[in-house]
Amino acid sequence: MALKVLSALDTARTQWYHFKAIIIAGMGLFSDAYDLFCIPPILRFLGRIYYQKPHLPFDNNDDNFVIRRHVDSVLLGVAFLGTVIGQLVFGRLGDRIGRRRVYGLSLMVMVLSALGCGFSICTSRSCVLVSLGFFRFLLGVGIGGDYPLSATIMSEFANKRTRGSFIAAVFSMQGFGILASSIVTMVVCGIFNAASHPNPKEKTPTEADVAWRLILMLGAIPAAMTYYWRMMMPETARYTALVELNVQQATKDMEKVLDVSLSPIAEDESLTLPQDPPSYPLFSKQFLRLHGRDLFGCSVVRKRQPNFFYSSNLFQSQVYRKYLGNKYNANVYKDAIHVALLQTIVAICSTIPGYWFTVYFIDRIGRRKIQMMGFMVLYGLTFFFANFGPNTTTFIVPTELFPARFRSTCHGISGATGKVGAIIGAVGFGWASHGQTEHPKAIKILLVILGGVCLLGLAVTYFFTPETNGRSLEENEE
Asked: How far is the C-alpha of 277 from the C-alpha of 261, rounded, in Å?
C-alpha cells in the first residue's frame, strides 16, 4: 500500500508552491543556458582581440588560424567536460546525502565560476585563455550538478497528472536563458559601440576586453538571486520517506508544500518505514536486471540528442554565414551583435516555442511519442522539434523511471553521456566550420552525420524507452 504522503503528492491540486518550485528550479536552467550559449559571440571578441586582423576576421590563411581552431574547440569542450563531471558527482551526491543539501552548492559553484570567467586574472593572451578555460570548466561542473537535481526535485514535488508539464516548464527556462544571453550581448555591445565609435579599419578598441568579461559576469546574477529560496525549500517527501526512511518528517514537510492539515496525510504511528524497501546497490545484478534497459535507453538517447542540439545552436552563425555577407567584416561590437541577433531570432521563432509545445502536450501525447517525433524532423525545424522532442523528454524521462534512491544518480549518468555527445558535436562542428575554406562541404557532411544520429536516437527510443505518462513515480519503478 502506498504511503499516504506520496499518494497526497500524486493527487494534489496544482498550487502556488508548484509554480514557485518551477521558478526556483528553472532559474538554474536559465543560468545554465545563459552561461553555455553566450560563448559564440564571446569567441568573436577573443578572436578579434587576441588573434585576428580587424579587417579579415575569418581569413583561414593567417598564421594563427590553426591555433585559433584549437582554442575555440577547447573553450567549447572544456565547459561540457565539466558538465559531465558535475552531473555524475552531484547526481550521486543528491542520492547519497539529499537533493536539498547539494542543491545550493551547485548553484554557488555556478555563481563564483561565472564571476571568475569575467575576472580572468591577467590580460596577456595565454594567461587569459588558460584562466577562462579553468573557470569555464568549473562553471560546467556547477551546470552539470544543476541538471539532475532540478529535474529530480521537480519530479518528486509534482502531482501525477501534470508532472511532465512541470518538469518541462523547468527545462523550458533554458530557452529563455539562450534568449537572455543574446539580448544582454546586444545591449552591452550596443552601449560600448555607441561610446567608442570604433572604425572597422582601426585596431580593436581596448574597451572590448571589458565588454566580453561583463557579458560573462552578468550570467551570475539570476543564479545568485535564487540561492536563498533554494535553501528554504524542504527536502522532497520521496527522498525523506523512501531513502532516509523518515515518514513522519516527510509528512511534516509536505504539509507546508501541499497547504493541507497534517491529519489527512499522517501515517499510522506504528508505520515508520516503507514496506519492503529495496536493498540492492547501484549497478548490482538486480539493479541491472530491473533498470539496466531503462538506463541504457536514457543514456544512449541522451548522448545522441546533444550531438545535433548543442552543435547546431553553438555554430548556427557558421551554418548561415554565407547568407550574412560582409556583416562579419564589421567592427568587433557589430560582429558580436550579428551573432547574438541570429541566436535571438532562432530562439524566439523555434527554440522557445518548442519548449512550450512540450509543456502543453507532454501529459496529453506522452513522452515516448514526442521524443520519437522530434528525432524524425529535418534540420530546418531542428530548434523547434529538438525542444518539442528529445531535448526536453530526455530531461524528463530519467526522473520517472528509477527508484528514489537512484533517481538523481541515474539522471546524472544519462545527462553525462549526453554531454559527451555535446563535446563530440560541438568540437567536431567547430573544426568543420573553421575548415570551410579548405573543405567547403565539411558542414554539409557533418549535417548528414547529425541526421544519421537522429535516426539512431529514434530507433533507441522505439525499442528501449517505455512510456511513463499518467503513472506515479512508484508505479513507473514497478
From this structure: 27
Give CA–CA dist 429/450, Å, rounded: 10
- Identity at 219, one-letter amino acid code: G
Instruction: Return the residue matching grid coordinates 545568485.
Output: 224
The pLDDT of residue 395: 83
Confidence of residue 312 (pLDDT cuts 50, 70, 90): low
Contacts of 238 (CB under 8 A, 6+ apart): 6, 9, 156, 250, 404, 473
pLDDT digits (tens, 9 = 90+) for 360-407: 998 888 888 887 776 665 444 665 766 676 777 888 888 888 888 889
pLDDT at 295: 85
- Where residue 57 falls among pLDDT bands split at 50, 70, 90? very low
Class of domain 17-263+290-467: mainly alpha
| Separation CA 267–CA 280 (nearest Å) | 26
Name residues whose C-beta falls within 8 Å of residue 194's C-beta, 6 or more positions apart in sequence: none
Can you read off the three cell numbers belonging to residue 373?
517525433
Contact 3, 274 (CB under 8 A): yes
Angle between helices 332-346 and 163-196 (to 10 degrees): 160
Whole-number mean pLDDT of the chain? 78
Domain ranges of the chain: 17-263+290-467
Residue 301 has a pLDDT of: 66
Beta bridge partners of residue 53, listed in sequence order: 56
Cα–Cα distance for residue pair 153/133, rounded to 1 Å: 30
SS3 55: coil
CA distance 251 to 272: 11
Contact between 122 and 238 (Cβ < 8 Å)? no
Taking the CA atoms of 15, 18, 24 and 27 in sequence, report the sign of the dihedral they define: negative
DSSP three-state, residue 444: helix
**424 Cβ contact list (under 8 Å, min separation 6):** 307
Per-residue burial over 386-423, b if 16 or more Cβ lie within 10 Å, else e, is: bbbbbbbbbbbbbbbbbbbbbbbbbbbbbbbbbbbbbb
Note whether 253 and 220 are within 8 A (CB): no
- Other C-beta atoms closer than 10 Å to the C-beta of 167 total 31
How distant, in Å, are the alpha carbons of 6, 131, 234 from that of 134? 43, 5, 33
Q: Which residues contact 221 (CB under 8 A, 6 or more apart)?
A: none
Please, are residues 114 and 217 in contact by the beta-carbon 8 Å criterion? Answer: yes
231-248 pLDDT, tens digit each:
888 899 899 988 888 888
